[in-house]
Write a structure and sequence with these properties.
Blueprint lengths: L1 H4 L2 H14 L9 H9 L6 H4 L4 H8 L2 H9 L5 H19 L2 E4 L1 H18 L10 E5 L35 H8 L3 E6 L11 E2 L3 E2 L15 H8 L5 E6 L5 H7 L2 E4 L23 E6 L2 H12 L17 H8 L16 E4 L9 H16 L3 E4 L5 H12 L5 H8 L21 H24 L5 E5 L9 H9 L2 E9 L16 H8 L3 H4 L3 E8 L4 H34 L1
Parallel strand pairs: 2-3, 2-6, 9-10, 9-11
Antiparallel strand pairs: 1-3, 4-5, 6-8, 7-8, 7-12, 11-13, 12-13
Length: 573
């Protein structure tokens, strides 16, 4: 093919242009608007809404549970909702470079079909009827590329070697979403290799943090989180093998659920190092609300994915677990007198001190939960840096042969951030791999023993990483353990509050580098998210606990606001 003889730069440029051509002319921004966006620090909220009409703002401001209910009640149509999100996603891409694939026409055609079905049968076809759902560019959708950020896979689907199957394969999760009534409309950007906590590739370049364009959007599901921060999506899917749905959610002020890998189907999903099966990547859910995470987990498990994917453990959605933990607190998050309060461990640091906004976020949660009558204890687990070391060794075990093979298809280079980490090397030997596996199993056992030693611990929470300098051990150790985690937004960095503590003495060179990287001016306005962690297959439990934590924070915030108003009023009297 002629395309195969073109340079990687030309192929990438053609792909970028083709993607932009798929945006309707009426949704394209002027050069003046694009220039304005370039100078804008915060693209969220009123800025992006300036390109939408009142109805579009109303629709994209609702969460997923509201949207499916209003479609079911006949207050909104699937076409109205899909059109609003397609337009917002189109604008989001133009101002923040977050989409690798656009298929709005296909989405609107499906939405019209769903509306016709609803008009004919007076009922929805499933719990996600008419809801637009975005996907990280690892999931195969018929008729659409899956490049996963590699130039060599433009015009094809990564991992699909049979030419007859190109654009015909469909990830099992995609099949499930369609059966539930969802509308698929775009695929979001990823970093080259997937193995970095930012989102950069040689096809479309870099995706920034829409809350603060001086910061990273995270990765590898960074395009997904950035799109949600701009309300171009309220519910979508990413994957996580080292923090890839947790880091972006924390960076962008959204929610995410990283389940144990065998809870949701990974069948027919493109991946880096697909043969590395010792510590698996997990399909994760990303949303603008906690209710959205719950909605999607419940809906997808209702399809019984284990019947089609033998790797999925047959665990239906457990309403009883959700209810059991919900009863531990009242609606405002305060401990229920008729039940035991929650007991949570807090990890303040793993030897690399979190930046001031994150430490403040930890204090916000700790103070809220204690005020609500719950128990908070110190969490001092086995060295998480050791867990990260073992995990990273697995990811590099093949000597970067998989990554280099993908690059060789087009001749594209590694992005600068990865040039050292993914140089071609000899793979480790089988005995070395087996020894590494033993180390991983030992680490899992040590961590489990420590958790058991804390007696009736319901969960733990601690920092997620913060842009632009992430610290992998806060996220990667969970992938060695295959634990469950939910990320919640807590606050935003404030340069007037989160000042540098000049008296702090770093404990190591890495700690010093991280501490000196903090600049209150640059970080100002950046979201702060924390992860709440449970053990294997505790998704419903951690979702329920996360709701209690969020409610407790909201209650404390309301009380503090009321007290401040009362104080100001008294001062004026």
């Amino acid at each position: 093919m002629i395309e195969d003889r073109l340079s990687w730069e030309v192929r990438a440029a053609i792909k970028r242009a083709d993607t932009l051509k798929k945006i309707p002319a009426s949704w394209k921004l002027s050069h003046e608007d694009l220039a304005k966006a370039e100078k804008q620090r915060d693209l969220t909220g009123s800025f992006i809404q300036g390109f939408l009409d009142a109805d579009e703002i109303s629709i994209t401001s609702k969460d997923s549970v509201q949207l499916v209910q209003e479609i079911k009640d006949g207050k909104l149509t699937a076409v109205q909702v899909t059109s609003a999100f397609c337009k917002t996603a189109a604008i989001a891409h133009q101002i923040n470079n977050c989409l690798l694939e656009i298929f709005f026409d296909q989405a609107l055609e499906r939405a019209a079909w769903l509306d016709a079905q609803f008009a004919d049968k007076k009922s929805t076809i499933g719990p996600l009827h008419g809801l637009p759902v975005s996907l990280k560019d690892q999931f195969h959708v018929k008729g659409v590329d899956t490049t996963m950020g590699y130039v060599g896979w433009i015009g094809s689907n990564l991992g699909i070697s049979d030419p007859k199957q190109v654009h015909q394969v469909e990830s099992q999760l995609v099949t499930e979403l369609l059966s539930l009534g969802a509308v698929l409309y775009c695929k979001t950007s990823v970093p080259q290799t997937l193995l970095i906590g930012e989102t950069k590739n040689n096809i479309i370049g870099e995706t920034l943090n829409p809350n603060n364009r001086h910061l990273s959007c995270g990765g590898s599901s960074g395009g997904e989180a950035a799109l949600q921060a701009l309300r171009g999506s309220v519910l979508g899917f990413g994957t996580d093998i080292g923090g890839s749905v947790r880091i972006p959610a924390a960076f962008n002020g959204t929610f995410s659920l990283k389940p144990t890998p065998e809870r949701l189907s990974y069948r027919c999903v493109a991946n880096t190092n697909p043969g590395q099966n010792t510590y698996r990547s997990a399909v994760g859910i990303m949303s603008t609300s906690l209710d959205g995470l719950e909605l999607m987990l419940r809906a997808d498990l209702s399809t019984k994915p284990w019947l089609r994917d033998p790797e999925v453990v047959p665990i239906p959605f457990r309403e009883e677990v959700l209810s059991e933990y919900a009863l531990r607190a009242k609606n405002d998050g305060t401990a229920n007198d008729a039940a035991l309060p929650l007991k949570l461990g807090v990890l303040w640091t793993d030897g690399v001190q979190p930046h001031p906004p994150i430490t403040r976020g930890l204090h916000i949660v700790v103070n809220a939960m204690r005020s609500a009558g719950h128990k908070i204890v110190q969490w001092n687990p086995p060295n998480q840096r050791e867990g990260r070391k073992i995990h990273w060794a697995f990811l590099k075990a093949d000597g970067a042969h998989d990554v280099q093979n993908q690059l060789a298809l087009s001749g594209e280079p590694l992005i600068p951030d990865l040039k050292e980490a993914f140089k071609l090397r000899d793979p480790i030997s089988l005995p070395e791999y087996q020894d590494l596996t033993v180390q991983g199993l030992q680490y899992e056992a040590e961590y489990s023993d420590y958790w058991n030693s804390t007696a009736e611990q319901d969960g733990k929470f601690g920092p997620s990483t913060h842009p632009p300098h992430s610290q992998g051990p806060y996220s990667e150790f969970l992938n060695i353990l295959n634990y469950t985690a939910v990320v919640i937004p807590v606050t935003k960095a404030d340069k007037h509050v989160d000042t540098v503590d000049k008296s702090y003495q770093p404990s190591s060179e890495l700690d010093r580098q991280n501490w000196e990287a903090y600049d209150p001016e640059i970080y100002d306005g950046g979201p702060v998210g924390l992860q709440i962690v449970g053990r294997k297959f505790e998704e419903e439990k951690i979702l329920s606990i996360a709701k209690i934590v969020v409610s407790a924070m909201e209650t404390t915030k309301a009380k503090n606001t009321s007290a401040r108003v009362d104080s100001e009023t008294a001062a004026k009297m």
